[in-house]
Amino acid sequence: MAGILAWFWNERFWLPHNVTWADLQSTEEAAFPQAEDLYLAFPLAFCIFMIRLLFERFIAKPCALGLKVQANGPQKAQPNAILEKVFTAITKHPDEKRLDGLSKQLDWDVRSIQRWFRQRRNQEKPSTLTKFCESMWRFTFYLYIFTYGVRFLKKTPWLWNTRQCWNGYPYQPLMPDLHYYYIVELSFYWSLMFSQFIDIKRKDFGIMFTHHIVTVTLITFSYVTNLTRVGTLTLCLHDAADVVLEAAKMANYCKCQKLSDLLFLTFAIVFIVSRLGIYPLWILNTTLFELYEALGNFPALWVFNVLLVILQILHCFWSYLIIKAAYKAISKGKVAKDDRSDIESSSDEEETVPRSKTPHSTVTTNGTSGANGTNGYLTGSTSSEEH
């Protein structure tokens, strides 16, 4: 084990030439980032998750009810023992052959069976109230941490001149405000990574999970190697768009369509400018070029830049989705439903009673389109928040 640890913490990989871990040990005169500091993120992540549960129940939920956010979930499927057994024990997405067999067994037409399975899948999805509470929690956290980041960074020289990120590196003392900023951000993303498995499921689950892993790795990596100055710039830049996104979602769930549209278009502008403009020209420029000029080459530098480039690739993917949604918003006059929405819908009319294949049977319909009354997510959450 000692040999493995020695290999992993090889100074020639992690640090510039002629710098050792002993040089970065904290003293009474100056504190430096230590790897063991990051253990604090795990209990703090649990605390953040518990604060979230309390916030959603005692603050977000009363606010949602006061704003008359819909508390009921999607329409429930008609009870049917045979279909329920297939749904729970065999498949939630029956193929054509199974649909034909169930149609003969129940004397229902295939469309009614498909509709039952769609309603049954939606039945397990969260209500608009639940989604509003989640968005309000993320909005509150992102607003707090973004405000904290701006107040901290406006007092630092590297906000105005990125070359200051490398002035005196790696012998840059760890300021208490910077340490707090880093640990809280890392703890939040750890909590997001684990809570993603119990949160609202979306179609880009894999991409968001990849994003959280890259973010946690970047925060950890930059802290251990004392690349914290450029790290604070990256964190603050990413939090800016997430505040507006969560506000747009909440407006959408409250059915304030005009406000939701305005906030979504604002989010689209902020996201694209910050992630496709400022990020590569400000962050990537200083890590790829200014850092190399100041310190030369060492392996950890390239790993750090590879992670930052992966983040940029994710930015491009989400920007494509956002631009597509913004185009629909402009062409149709309102924000389109998110492609990642967790509620399935159909252009067919939803029926409360399945249609029998026999011609003399009576059919009752409610005439409500499955797409109506469904508040989908706005495109681009990172996640944001989920960056």
From TrEMBL:
GO terms for biological process: ceramide biosynthetic process. Its main location: endoplasmic reticulum. The lineage of its organism: Eukaryota, Metazoa, Chordata, Craniata, Vertebrata. GO terms for cellular component: endoplasmic reticulum membrane; nucleus. Residues 130-331 form the TLC domain. Residues 364-376 have a biased composition (Low complexity). Pathway: Lipid metabolism; sphingolipid metabolism; Sphingolipid metabolism. It comes from Patagioenas fasciata monilis. Keywords: DNA-binding, Endoplasmic reticulum, Homeobox, Lipid biosynthesis, Lipid metabolism, Membrane, Nucleus, Transferase, Transmembrane, Transmembrane helix. It comes from the Eukaryota. One of its GO terms (molecular function) is DNA binding. It is found in: Endoplasmic reticulum membrane; Nucleus. Residues 377-387 have a biased composition (Polar residues). This is Ceramide synthase 6 isoform B. It catalyses: sphinganine + octadecanoyl-CoA = N-(octadecanoyl)-sphinganine + CoA + H(+). Residues 337-387 are annotated as: Disordered. The chain crosses the membrane at residues 38-55, 179-198, 262-282, 302-323. Residues 83-127 form the Homeobox domain. It holds the Pfam family Homeodomain. InterPro entries: HD, Homeodomain-like_sf, Lag1/Lac1-like, TLC-dom. The keyword Acyltransferase does not apply. The keyword Transcription regulation does not apply.
